[in-house]
What we know:
Layout: H1 3-8, E1 19-23, E2 29-30, E3 33-34, H2 38-47, E4 51-56, H3 63-72, E5 82-84, H4 85-96, E6 102-106, H5 109-117, E7 121-124, E8 143-146, H6 154-165, E9 169-172, E10 178-181, E11 184-187, H7 189-200, E12 205-206, H8 213-222, E13 229-233, H9 236-245, E14 249-253, H10 260-263, E15 274-276, H11 279-286
Parallel strand pairs: 1-4, 1-13, 4-5, 6-7, 6-8, 8-9, 9-12, 13-14, 14-15
Antiparallel strand pairs: 2-3, 10-11
Helix pairs in contact: 2-11, 4-8, 6-7
Amino acid sequence: MPVARMIRAMDSLPARIRLVIFDLDGVVYRGSEPVEGAADLVAWLHDRGVAVRFATNNSMVARDGYVGRLAEMGIATSVDEIVTSTSATVVHLQLHAPHVRRVLAIGADGMRQELEAAGFVVEMAAEIHQDRPGAPLERAYDAVVVGLDPGFDYQRLAVATSAVTAGAALVATNADARYPTPDGFLPGAGSMVAAVAAASGAVPEVIGKPEPAMFRAILEASGIPGSEAVVVGDNPASDVIGARRAGCSSILVLTGVADAASVSELQAEAVPHAVAADPRAVRALLEPLVS
């Protein structure tokens, strides 16, 4: 479908929108640079009383870190509006696995902070040493939570495998196999999840995009149904597919991964409900739909 036609096909968006969920990198900022017009769009939604959330697959940074980063870009927000794959994992466990108390974590300090702040008893795989790889651990864990860990090594893999083999659930904050950097792609959390899954034989429960658990956690916490929510993202493979799976509409903004040339090739779940060139165009789409 031509891009121009998709921009005009607005009858597929909800008649009323009460919640807007923004992806971050590629939508609100690109690297360290803000996307022009994003701050004005967020401020306008706040002024109109629309609920706003920022959702990222990044599991390494605690939510307050994003509050500070966005403030530097002129976007006033609060911790409650930030949803990382770790914070979404916390909400998911609280709502759907209330028995989980003791957690073995593979990840960064930001993950540990979020899990401990939620009341979980957390031990990092990096801090546990077995007498020999594969030996029984001193204690049992309810879940092994895996995020991006730049120090991931054989020892951490062995500890996590032992915990899962002993009965812990395997939970992945996200399944991104790699992520972009200015110098090229680096292994993402999904690479580490895949290693633990392969070694233990367990099937991980994935929280981050494109799986719907992150967006569903936002909907459940906000009390707003997916039929009145829209996801604004730049990546059809994560943002758009994740939105559809959670029952939300989506606007694909062409300030990040996707460009106009690639839109006509999108198929099935990756086809957005609307396309916008930039944040100003997103506002034009939303103006008749927010109260």
